Amino acid sequence: MKTFFAPFLPLVLMIVPFRIFAEPPHPSAPDPVVADLCAELDSLKTRTATWEKILAALPKISGYVQTGYTWSERSSTFFIKRVRLNLSGALAERLDYRIQIEFCSPKIVDAYLRYRPFEALNIQLGEYKLPFSIENTEYVPLKYEFIEYPLSLRRLMGFDDLCGLSATGRDMGAMLYGGFFKRGDYSILNYNVGVFNGEGLNVKDLNRAKDVVARLTLKPFAGFQVAASGYWGRYGERSLERTRYGLGACYDRGPVVLRCEYICGTTGMPQADGEQVVGQQSEGWYAVGGVRITRSLLAVARYDTFLEDRSVGATRQTNWTAGVLWQPVKHLRCQLNYTYEDYASPAVANGNVVSVMLSGIF
Q1: What CATH number matches the domain at 58-361, 1.10.10.60, 2.60.40.1880, 2.40.160.10, 3.65.10.10?
Q2: Taking the model in full, what pTM does it have?
Q3: 86 burial type by CB count under 10 A (0-12 exposed, 13-18 middle, 19+ buried)
Protein backbone atom coordinates (compact mmCIF):
# COMPACT_ATOMS: atom_id res chain seq x y z
CA MET A 1 0.00 0.00 0.00
CA LYS A 2 2.73 2.37 0.96
CA THR A 3 4.49 1.77 -2.33
CA PHE A 4 1.27 2.38 -4.32
CA PHE A 5 0.52 5.90 -2.87
CA ALA A 6 4.09 7.08 -2.71
CA PRO A 7 4.24 8.45 -6.29
CA PHE A 8 1.06 10.51 -5.72
CA LEU A 9 2.08 12.01 -2.41
CA PRO A 10 3.69 15.19 -3.82
CA LEU A 11 0.60 15.87 -5.92
CA VAL A 12 -1.71 15.47 -2.93
CA LEU A 13 0.43 17.86 -0.87
CA MET A 14 0.12 20.49 -3.61
CA ILE A 15 -3.68 20.17 -4.03
CA VAL A 16 -4.69 20.17 -0.36
CA PRO A 17 -3.40 23.73 0.48
CA PHE A 18 -4.94 25.08 -2.75
CA ARG A 19 -8.31 23.60 -1.80
CA ILE A 20 -8.06 25.05 1.68
CA PHE A 21 -7.34 28.58 0.49
CA ALA A 22 -9.80 28.41 -2.42
CA GLU A 23 -12.69 27.33 -0.22
CA PRO A 24 -14.81 30.43 0.64
CA PRO A 25 -15.22 31.13 4.32
CA HIS A 26 -18.54 30.26 5.87
CA PRO A 27 -20.67 33.39 6.36
CA SER A 28 -20.90 34.52 9.89
CA ALA A 29 -24.21 35.46 11.51
CA PRO A 30 -25.30 39.09 10.70
CA ASP A 31 -24.70 41.80 13.24
CA PRO A 32 -28.05 42.47 15.04
CA VAL A 33 -27.42 46.24 15.10
CA VAL A 34 -26.83 46.41 11.32
CA ALA A 35 -29.94 44.32 10.65
CA ASP A 36 -32.09 46.60 12.79
CA LEU A 37 -30.74 49.70 11.02
CA CYS A 38 -31.49 48.19 7.58
CA ALA A 39 -35.02 47.32 8.62
CA GLU A 40 -35.57 50.82 10.03
CA LEU A 41 -34.25 52.36 6.80
CA ASP A 42 -36.62 50.27 4.67
CA SER A 43 -39.54 51.27 6.90
CA LEU A 44 -38.58 54.96 6.63
CA LYS A 45 -38.43 54.75 2.83
CA THR A 46 -41.91 53.21 2.74
CA ARG A 47 -43.39 55.89 5.02
CA THR A 48 -41.71 58.68 3.00
CA ALA A 49 -43.09 57.34 -0.29
CA THR A 50 -46.58 57.17 1.27
CA TRP A 51 -46.40 60.78 2.51
CA GLU A 52 -45.15 61.96 -0.88
CA LYS A 53 -48.20 60.40 -2.52
CA ILE A 54 -50.51 62.03 0.02
CA LEU A 55 -48.89 65.47 -0.38
CA ALA A 56 -49.01 65.19 -4.18
CA ALA A 57 -52.76 64.58 -3.99
CA LEU A 58 -53.41 67.63 -1.78
CA PRO A 59 -54.29 70.94 -3.50
CA LYS A 60 -51.67 73.65 -3.84
CA ILE A 61 -52.75 76.72 -1.90
CA SER A 62 -51.91 80.27 -2.95
CA GLY A 63 -53.53 83.68 -3.02
CA TYR A 64 -53.14 87.41 -2.61
CA VAL A 65 -54.57 90.55 -1.06
CA GLN A 66 -54.76 93.87 -2.93
CA THR A 67 -55.49 97.03 -0.98
CA GLY A 68 -54.78 100.71 -1.49
CA TYR A 69 -55.89 104.33 -1.59
CA THR A 70 -57.40 106.56 -4.32
CA TRP A 71 -57.66 110.36 -4.45
CA SER A 72 -59.53 112.52 -6.98
CA GLU A 73 -61.37 115.83 -7.05
CA ARG A 74 -64.61 113.95 -6.43
CA SER A 75 -63.57 111.39 -3.82
CA SER A 76 -60.87 110.18 -1.45
CA THR A 77 -60.99 106.64 -0.15
CA PHE A 78 -59.11 103.58 1.00
CA PHE A 79 -60.14 100.39 -0.78
CA ILE A 80 -59.77 96.62 -0.81
CA LYS A 81 -59.73 95.55 -4.44
CA ARG A 82 -59.22 91.79 -4.28
CA VAL A 83 -58.81 89.08 -1.65
CA ARG A 84 -58.25 85.80 -3.47
CA LEU A 85 -57.63 82.22 -2.34
CA ASN A 86 -56.56 79.73 -5.00
CA LEU A 87 -56.66 75.93 -4.78
CA SER A 88 -55.29 73.83 -7.62
CA GLY A 89 -54.06 70.31 -8.19
CA ALA A 90 -53.93 67.25 -10.42
CA LEU A 91 -56.48 64.44 -10.35
CA ALA A 92 -54.57 62.36 -12.89
CA GLU A 93 -51.64 62.74 -15.28
CA ARG A 94 -53.51 64.98 -17.73
CA LEU A 95 -56.50 66.00 -15.62
CA ASP A 96 -56.31 68.98 -13.25
CA TYR A 97 -58.57 71.45 -11.50
CA ARG A 98 -58.65 74.97 -10.08
CA ILE A 99 -60.86 76.73 -7.54
CA GLN A 100 -60.46 80.46 -6.86
CA ILE A 101 -62.55 82.28 -4.27
CA GLU A 102 -62.98 86.04 -3.92
CA PHE A 103 -63.53 87.17 -0.32
CA CYS A 104 -63.78 90.92 -0.95
CA SER A 105 -67.37 90.42 -2.18
CA PRO A 106 -67.67 86.68 -1.51
CA LYS A 107 -68.06 84.59 -4.64
CA ILE A 108 -66.39 81.83 -6.60
CA VAL A 109 -64.53 83.36 -9.55
CA ASP A 110 -62.89 80.20 -10.92
CA ALA A 111 -64.01 76.58 -10.64
CA TYR A 112 -63.11 74.26 -13.48
CA LEU A 113 -61.79 70.90 -14.60
CA ARG A 114 -59.25 70.73 -17.42
CA TYR A 115 -58.30 67.68 -19.47
CA ARG A 116 -55.16 68.02 -21.63
CA PRO A 117 -54.68 64.89 -23.75
CA PHE A 118 -52.82 66.60 -26.62
CA GLU A 119 -51.00 69.83 -27.36
CA ALA A 120 -53.52 70.61 -30.09
CA LEU A 121 -56.72 69.62 -28.26
CA ASN A 122 -57.64 70.37 -24.65
CA ILE A 123 -60.97 70.61 -22.84
CA GLN A 124 -61.99 72.97 -20.04
CA LEU A 125 -65.35 72.90 -18.25
CA GLY A 126 -66.64 75.17 -15.48
CA GLU A 127 -66.28 78.88 -14.66
CA TYR A 128 -63.24 80.87 -15.78
CA LYS A 129 -61.95 83.77 -17.90
CA LEU A 130 -63.60 84.18 -21.29
CA PRO A 131 -61.09 83.61 -24.14
CA PHE A 132 -61.51 87.15 -25.42
CA SER A 133 -58.68 89.68 -25.86
CA ILE A 134 -55.08 89.52 -24.73
CA GLU A 135 -55.44 91.44 -21.48
CA ASN A 136 -58.50 89.57 -20.22
CA THR A 137 -56.80 86.18 -20.33
CA GLU A 138 -53.03 86.64 -20.20
CA TYR A 139 -52.65 89.68 -17.94
CA VAL A 140 -54.11 88.52 -14.64
CA PRO A 141 -54.02 90.94 -11.66
CA LEU A 142 -50.63 89.75 -10.39
CA LYS A 143 -49.10 90.22 -13.86
CA TYR A 144 -50.95 93.38 -14.87
CA GLU A 145 -48.95 96.61 -14.87
CA PHE A 146 -51.82 98.97 -13.95
CA ILE A 147 -54.34 99.14 -11.12
CA GLU A 148 -57.37 99.38 -13.45
CA TYR A 149 -58.04 97.61 -16.77
CA PRO A 150 -58.77 99.76 -19.88
CA LEU A 151 -62.22 101.23 -20.42
CA SER A 152 -63.08 99.18 -23.52
CA LEU A 153 -62.39 95.90 -21.71
CA ARG A 154 -64.26 96.93 -18.58
CA ARG A 155 -67.33 98.18 -20.45
CA LEU A 156 -67.59 95.48 -23.11
CA MET A 157 -66.25 92.29 -21.50
CA GLY A 158 -68.09 91.81 -18.24
CA PHE A 159 -66.14 93.89 -15.72
CA ASP A 160 -68.58 96.79 -15.55
CA ASP A 161 -70.40 95.88 -18.73
CA LEU A 162 -72.92 98.05 -20.56
CA CYS A 163 -75.36 95.14 -20.33
CA GLY A 164 -75.16 95.23 -16.52
CA LEU A 165 -72.77 92.35 -15.87
CA SER A 166 -70.02 92.64 -13.26
CA ALA A 167 -68.25 89.34 -13.73
CA THR A 168 -64.50 90.12 -13.97
CA GLY A 169 -64.46 88.88 -17.57
CA ARG A 170 -65.65 85.39 -16.59
CA ASP A 171 -68.57 83.07 -17.31
CA MET A 172 -69.68 79.44 -17.05
CA GLY A 173 -69.27 77.11 -20.00
CA ALA A 174 -67.14 74.65 -21.95
CA MET A 175 -64.12 75.39 -24.12
CA LEU A 176 -61.76 73.65 -26.54
CA TYR A 177 -58.28 75.06 -27.00
CA GLY A 178 -54.85 74.09 -28.27
CA GLY A 179 -51.79 75.01 -30.27
CA PHE A 180 -49.95 73.93 -33.41
CA PHE A 181 -46.35 74.16 -34.65
CA LYS A 182 -44.46 73.95 -31.37
CA ARG A 183 -41.37 76.14 -31.05
CA GLY A 184 -39.53 76.02 -27.75
CA ASP A 185 -42.00 76.68 -24.93
CA TYR A 186 -44.82 78.10 -27.11
CA SER A 187 -46.97 77.22 -30.14
CA ILE A 188 -47.01 79.46 -33.21
CA LEU A 189 -50.74 79.08 -33.91
CA ASN A 190 -53.25 78.89 -31.04
CA TYR A 191 -57.03 78.72 -30.86
CA ASN A 192 -59.85 78.93 -28.28
CA VAL A 193 -63.52 78.25 -28.93
CA GLY A 194 -66.18 77.94 -26.25
CA VAL A 195 -69.88 77.98 -25.44
CA PHE A 196 -71.02 79.94 -22.35
CA ASN A 197 -74.17 80.96 -20.48
CA GLY A 198 -73.62 84.66 -21.02
CA GLU A 199 -74.87 85.72 -17.58
CA GLY A 200 -71.65 86.09 -15.59
CA LEU A 201 -70.44 84.53 -12.35
CA ASN A 202 -72.39 81.70 -10.69
CA VAL A 203 -75.57 82.44 -12.67
CA LYS A 204 -77.61 79.96 -14.69
CA ASP A 205 -78.60 80.99 -18.20
CA LEU A 206 -81.70 83.19 -18.26
CA ASN A 207 -82.56 82.43 -21.90
CA ARG A 208 -82.34 79.51 -24.31
CA ALA A 209 -79.48 80.94 -26.35
CA LYS A 210 -75.85 80.10 -25.70
CA ASP A 211 -72.99 82.55 -26.19
CA VAL A 212 -70.13 81.56 -28.49
CA VAL A 213 -66.62 82.92 -27.96
CA ALA A 214 -63.63 82.33 -30.26
CA ARG A 215 -60.06 83.57 -30.40
CA LEU A 216 -57.20 82.95 -32.82
CA THR A 217 -53.66 83.84 -31.75
CA LEU A 218 -50.51 83.96 -33.86
CA LYS A 219 -47.08 83.96 -32.18
CA PRO A 220 -44.48 84.20 -34.96
CA PHE A 221 -41.57 84.65 -32.54
CA ALA A 222 -40.93 84.68 -28.80
CA GLY A 223 -42.57 87.54 -26.92
CA PHE A 224 -44.81 88.71 -29.79
CA GLN A 225 -48.43 87.82 -30.53
CA VAL A 226 -51.40 89.00 -32.58
CA ALA A 227 -54.90 87.95 -31.49
CA ALA A 228 -58.39 88.29 -32.99
CA SER A 229 -61.46 87.61 -30.82
CA GLY A 230 -65.20 87.33 -31.37
CA TYR A 231 -68.17 87.08 -29.00
CA TRP A 232 -71.71 86.35 -30.19
CA GLY A 233 -74.36 86.10 -27.49
CA ARG A 234 -77.58 87.05 -25.76
CA TYR A 235 -78.19 88.17 -22.19
CA GLY A 236 -81.10 88.40 -19.78
CA GLU A 237 -84.60 86.95 -19.89
CA ARG A 238 -85.42 89.07 -22.95
CA SER A 239 -82.44 87.57 -24.82
CA LEU A 240 -80.95 90.94 -25.77
CA GLU A 241 -78.05 91.17 -28.19
CA ARG A 242 -74.48 91.16 -26.91
CA THR A 243 -71.91 91.04 -29.70
CA ARG A 244 -68.20 91.87 -29.31
CA TYR A 245 -65.12 91.92 -31.56
CA GLY A 246 -61.49 92.51 -30.68
CA LEU A 247 -58.12 92.75 -32.38
CA GLY A 248 -54.82 93.25 -30.58
CA ALA A 249 -51.05 92.86 -30.64
CA CYS A 250 -48.48 92.54 -27.89
CA TYR A 251 -44.72 92.40 -27.47
CA ASP A 252 -43.55 91.57 -23.96
CA ARG A 253 -40.00 90.33 -23.65
CA GLY A 254 -36.89 91.50 -21.87
CA PRO A 255 -37.05 95.18 -20.85
CA VAL A 256 -39.81 96.17 -23.32
CA VAL A 257 -43.60 96.05 -22.96
CA LEU A 258 -45.76 97.14 -25.94
CA ARG A 259 -49.44 96.31 -26.26
CA CYS A 260 -52.55 97.65 -28.02
CA GLU A 261 -56.11 96.40 -28.60
CA TYR A 262 -59.25 97.58 -30.32
CA ILE A 263 -62.61 96.34 -28.99
CA CYS A 264 -66.07 97.13 -30.35
CA GLY A 265 -69.54 95.73 -29.88
CA THR A 266 -73.32 96.03 -30.05
CA THR A 267 -75.46 95.87 -26.91
CA GLY A 268 -79.24 95.59 -26.79
CA MET A 269 -80.31 98.47 -24.54
CA PRO A 270 -83.94 98.67 -23.32
CA GLN A 271 -85.44 102.14 -23.58
CA ALA A 272 -87.43 104.04 -20.96
CA ASP A 273 -90.74 102.53 -22.09
CA GLY A 274 -89.37 99.05 -21.38
CA GLU A 275 -90.57 97.69 -24.72
CA GLN A 276 -88.32 99.26 -27.36
CA VAL A 277 -84.75 97.99 -27.58
CA VAL A 278 -81.90 99.80 -29.32
CA GLY A 279 -78.73 98.07 -30.44
CA GLN A 280 -76.15 100.49 -29.07
CA GLN A 281 -72.80 100.38 -30.85
CA SER A 282 -69.65 101.07 -28.83
CA GLU A 283 -65.92 101.05 -29.49
CA GLY A 284 -62.64 101.74 -27.78
CA TRP A 285 -58.94 101.10 -27.92
CA TYR A 286 -55.83 101.45 -25.81
CA ALA A 287 -52.06 101.49 -26.26
CA VAL A 288 -49.51 100.56 -23.58
CA GLY A 289 -45.76 101.17 -23.49
CA GLY A 290 -43.38 100.30 -20.70
CA VAL A 291 -39.72 99.75 -19.79
CA ARG A 292 -38.31 97.46 -17.13
CA ILE A 293 -35.66 99.69 -15.60
CA THR A 294 -34.45 96.89 -13.33
CA ARG A 295 -35.72 93.39 -12.62
CA SER A 296 -37.98 94.80 -9.89
CA LEU A 297 -38.90 98.23 -11.30
CA LEU A 298 -41.20 98.94 -14.28
CA ALA A 299 -42.28 102.34 -15.66
CA VAL A 300 -45.37 102.25 -17.86
CA ALA A 301 -47.85 104.56 -19.65
CA ARG A 302 -51.23 104.02 -21.34
CA TYR A 303 -53.56 105.90 -23.66
CA ASP A 304 -57.14 104.61 -23.27
CA THR A 305 -60.26 105.88 -25.04
CA PHE A 306 -63.83 104.58 -25.18
CA LEU A 307 -66.91 105.79 -27.07
CA GLU A 308 -69.96 104.36 -25.31
CA ASP A 309 -72.41 105.26 -28.08
CA ARG A 310 -71.07 105.80 -31.60
CA SER A 311 -74.03 108.00 -32.48
CA VAL A 312 -73.30 110.38 -29.59
CA GLY A 313 -69.79 111.83 -29.57
CA ALA A 314 -70.29 113.30 -26.10
CA THR A 315 -70.22 109.78 -24.61
CA ARG A 316 -66.46 109.48 -25.19
CA GLN A 317 -64.05 109.21 -22.26
CA THR A 318 -60.27 109.26 -22.65
CA ASN A 319 -57.81 108.37 -19.89
CA TRP A 320 -54.09 109.13 -19.84
CA THR A 321 -52.29 106.99 -17.26
CA ALA A 322 -48.68 106.89 -16.06
CA GLY A 323 -47.55 104.35 -13.53
CA VAL A 324 -44.71 102.71 -11.66
CA LEU A 325 -44.60 99.08 -10.56
CA TRP A 326 -42.04 98.04 -7.96
CA GLN A 327 -41.71 94.49 -6.68
CA PRO A 328 -38.84 94.46 -4.15
CA VAL A 329 -39.53 90.87 -3.05
CA LYS A 330 -41.49 87.96 -4.47
CA HIS A 331 -44.41 88.40 -2.08
CA LEU A 332 -44.97 92.17 -2.41
CA ARG A 333 -45.99 94.37 -5.37
CA CYS A 334 -46.24 98.17 -5.06
CA GLN A 335 -48.09 100.20 -7.72
CA LEU A 336 -48.56 103.94 -8.17
CA ASN A 337 -50.83 105.30 -10.95
CA TYR A 338 -51.70 108.81 -12.04
CA THR A 339 -54.64 109.19 -14.47
CA TYR A 340 -55.99 112.27 -16.23
CA GLU A 341 -59.65 111.68 -17.17
CA ASP A 342 -60.87 113.61 -20.22
CA TYR A 343 -64.64 113.65 -20.84
CA ALA A 344 -66.15 114.79 -24.15
CA SER A 345 -69.41 115.73 -22.45
CA PRO A 346 -69.44 119.33 -21.17
CA ALA A 347 -71.66 118.15 -18.32
CA VAL A 348 -68.80 116.12 -16.78
CA ALA A 349 -65.67 117.86 -15.54
CA ASN A 350 -62.27 116.48 -16.40
CA GLY A 351 -60.32 115.19 -13.44
CA ASN A 352 -57.12 113.85 -11.90
CA VAL A 353 -56.90 110.52 -10.12
CA VAL A 354 -53.98 109.23 -8.04
CA SER A 355 -54.02 105.63 -6.84
CA VAL A 356 -51.62 103.46 -4.90
CA MET A 357 -52.06 99.72 -4.40
CA LEU A 358 -50.10 97.07 -2.52
CA SER A 359 -50.41 93.36 -3.32
CA GLY A 360 -49.44 90.83 -0.68
CA ILE A 361 -48.84 87.41 -2.24
CA PHE A 362 -48.69 84.03 -0.53
Answers
A1: 2.40.160.10
A2: 0.84
A3: middle
